[in-house]
From TrEMBL:
SUPFAM superfamilies: POZ domain (SSF54695). This is BTB domain-containing protein. InterPro entries: BTB/POZ_dom (IPR000210), SKP1/BTB/POZ_sf (IPR011333). Pfam families: BTB. Gene3D superfamilies: Potassium Channel Kv1.1, Chain A (3.30.710.10).
Amino acid sequence: MTDASISMVYPQPTSNTKRCEKLWFDDGSIVLQAGQTQFRIHKSLLARSSTVFNDMFLLPVPPEGAASDSEGIVEGCPVVHMQDSDADLTHLLEWIYEHPAKSTKNRRVPPTGDEIPATEGRGF
């Protein structure tokens, strides 16, 4: 996934655009589009699962009104146009959603209170 450009799409997909029903979540926060297929997924899960996605999400979003007439937002979510094929992106997203523990295993998140031994930080 290289050189992904961020752009917006209007709420109603064009007649050529289709949604991947298996990877279209009503509570998703971002829409990825590969070819003519759109995926509404969770930005936070992708960012935790992949440094590529994490870095991509750190890029600034174009200011509102900077998009052309054929671009906008889908159901309130920004659209990221991917250079990957829809089949490749489908396989990647399916793996991330079916294996969330494996895809986030090496994330750098501070431990929760339940994960810290009771003696740690108490001078023992």
